[in-house]
Every structure is written in C-alpha cells, then in structure tokens.
Amino acid sequence: MSGVASIHLVENALLVSIQDDVTDTEIIDLQDALSNRIADENVDGVIVDISALEIVDTFVGRVIAQLAGISRLLAAETYVVGMRPAVAVTLVELGMYLPQTRTALSLSHALAQLRRG
Question: Per the database record, which ranges form the STAS domain (predicted)?
Fold first, then answer.
C-alpha cells in the first residue's frame, strides 16, 4: 500500500494515515486489512490521520465515510485527525458531513477521547 501508510496499533486504537496519492485498489486493500485488524486486536477505535491531504474530493470523503462505517460495524469508534481548515470547508461544500465520524485536533486528543469512553 504505497499511497496509504501502514496501520499502527497505538494504545487500544489503530492509526491509519491517508496520503494524497491513494488509489481505489489501495483503499480496497486498506478496508480489508483494517477490518481484519479491528476484529483480531479488539480495538476501541480507529484514528484516521488526514494531515497529508491538502485538498479533498468526493472520493476521499467517501473513503473516510467507508472506513468509519466498517469500524462502527465492528464496534470501534472512528476519529479523523489532522484536518486542515481548507479540507473542512471543502467537505462541507461537497455536502459530506460524515455523521459516523468524530474529529479531534490531534492523535493525543483522539486517544484521550477514546480513554474517556
């Protein structure tokens, strides 16, 4: 998965970093790997780091929504971290509110929220 960083276990959450050049094939591979890791490691959350994204489109918004949906079905909360203001504005302009996804300013903030339950 060259466009998507590897999945890392941090405390009781899986950290996934989405890069600018992610492809459809890599997303399918990521979804499979992530769902297996959530089930195998029984994590409480998935933290999706999008700090590498300078712009987003409907594809990236759909990817985030799909990852959140998969996580929720497997009983893991999803947090998106590293969102730039321009990315937030673009997601709203595209009508993508991502209702199944929580946001946090950073990895440490997301982990703190997960600890609180």
Answer: 3-114
